[in-house]
Amino acid sequence: MASKSEIVFVDRSDISGPPGYYITIEIISALALKSWKFSLFSFEWLRPDGSIKSLEELDAEEAEKRRVAEKKFKTGAVFEKPILGIGLMDNVEIGAGRADFLTLIACGVEIIPVHIRASNESDFKAFRAGL
Question: Strand ranges (DSSP E) for the chain?
Fold first, then answer.
């Protein structure tokens, strides 16, 4: 099983935009999760108290995505960095890589590198690690 410090993250293959449009930052996963619970889509993965649902509580499609992500974590496979944004309610939104992101949090990963739009950098100050 890979340890949290052995996880390898790479840039997303499907990221688009001119050079410099996206930047990579490291975020504190617990803070991002606390904010994401206000997303319109969080009900698929979160319980009402904001904790991540168990594999059995997820619908079949999301459960399969979590199984894949858990296998990647256990075998030390490479993860593409998730893409995060800021929603209408000033909460974190997950644009791509949701299953990987949430599974890593469920596995105890505390700091996760993510892509964000450079223009949103100041919006992520409260979530950044090492600041």
Answer: 9-10, 22-28, 79-80, 83-86, 92-96, 111-117
Q: Which domains does the chain have, with CATH numbers?
A: 4-12+21-127 (3.90.1530)
Place of tokens 């969080």: 42
| Predicted local distance difference test score (pLDDT) of residue 123 | 92
Separation in Å, CA 85 to CA 14, 32, 39, 96 = 16, 11, 11, 10
pLDDT higher than threshold 70 for residue 8: yes
What lies within 8 Å, CB to CB, of 5 at 6+ separation is: none
Predicted confidence (pLDDT) per residue in 47-77, tens digit: 999 999 999 999 999 999 999 999 999 988 8
> Are 57 and 4 contacting, i.e. CB atoms less than 8 angstroms apart?
no
Q: How far is CA 33 from the centre of its chain?
A: 8
